[in-house]
Give the backbone structure.
Amino acid sequence: MGKPSTMQKKRWALMILLVLSLSTVGVILVRSSFDSCRIGGKITGHQFAEEKFRSAPERPNPLGFMKSKLVLLVSHELSLSGGPLLLMELAFLLRGVGAEVVWITNQKPNEEDEVISSLEHKMLDRGVQVISAKGEKAMDTALKADLIVLNTAVAGKWLDAALKENVVKALLPKILWWIHEMRGHYFKPDLVKHLPFVAGAMIDSHATAEYWKNRTQARLGMKMPKTYVVHLGNSKELMEVAEDSVAKRVLREHVRESLGVRNEDLLFGIINSVSRGKGQDLFLRAFQESLEIIKEKKLLQVPTMHAVVVGSDISKQTKFETELRNFVQEKKLQSYVHFVNKTLAVAPYIAAIDVLVQNSQARGECFGRITIEAMGFKVPVLGTAAGGTVEIVVNGTTGLLHGAGKEGMKPLAKNIVKLAVEVEVRLTMGRNGYERVKEMFLEHHMSHRIALVLKEVLQHAKAHALQ
């Protein structure tokens, strides 16, 4: 096949960007065992022979039983962050099997917001009803719904308001609370005081589930409801692009050309909303140190190295982002460090990079959707040994782990150098990561696990309705 013409390139790029306009990376935010499990040492009835499931012939959609069910999805906000985008993905999965899906956003700005408007139109186009969080229609829908999914801890504010209408008995038995947060400030009674009484909690990683179990008990004297760990999976659309060599090449060339990065250069990327908790500052310092190591050791075989930070917000220019840009100027790295504004279409940037850096700090990511998305593109991962990342990345096999905090900066720098120097190690880790995704982190894996949870919640709701 000849090299695509300029017109073909543009057509490919436009098509792929459109297909991936709802990639739920969390702006962009995506498991060593993908099991739904009961926290506290007791396994629910959901564990099954994994090998049997993987080798079984194609079977009906595991969410098919949700056909004609009325599902109310409650999000604390509608934005380009992980929680809302994951809930939107669930909305589309449920619509795909014929469920009636209604969406409520509890916190919306008074003024018109372009992002909110765009996301609402995407949902409406896919048959998801979008209604106001206030008023009789919202309450009527909540009462009639077969299932209510409360998304993130902050969404508890809506629940508190709803329960003031004296419908606590009717709502709590059919609520599944989907939690993604790993920060201590979410443990406030006004947010989670009803958590012990809902039908169940669904959490993205074992690390986060254990944290919530311990924290609610120690800080609030509260016991978690029945809790399920459900790891996420890559969408079919993203994997189609990841497995299309022509599409990947076109995207890679397009992005690299826009950044001023040559094909033979090495590009390390960090793809998260720019904030101190995501560790972009420590990554850039480690990147700068890796350049020093290469210079000191006279590693002439290493290609020119670049770093890209995807997830900026140029319109806001926060103090933290200003610090990042000032550091780049101070170290004279302007030709090697590139900033890209936040976007839903991250696949082009995954295709363009050679290594993903997942540098979330403190307790790490709850899960880290971008991690499995990068692995789907055969991109190795340098990640912090914290949170859900350790349930995804196999250290030394699909990537390399380093500690969080400043003490993890030097190991990260050394790992950057290692993957820059050892080409075959880098490529092998990328291939291993792809195989791990195919084995554990695809959409049908996620759908199957979520289906098992939803069945139990529906049974719980039905049993309480008969009382």
In short: Residues 35-229 form a domain with the Rossmann fold fold (CATH 3.40.50).
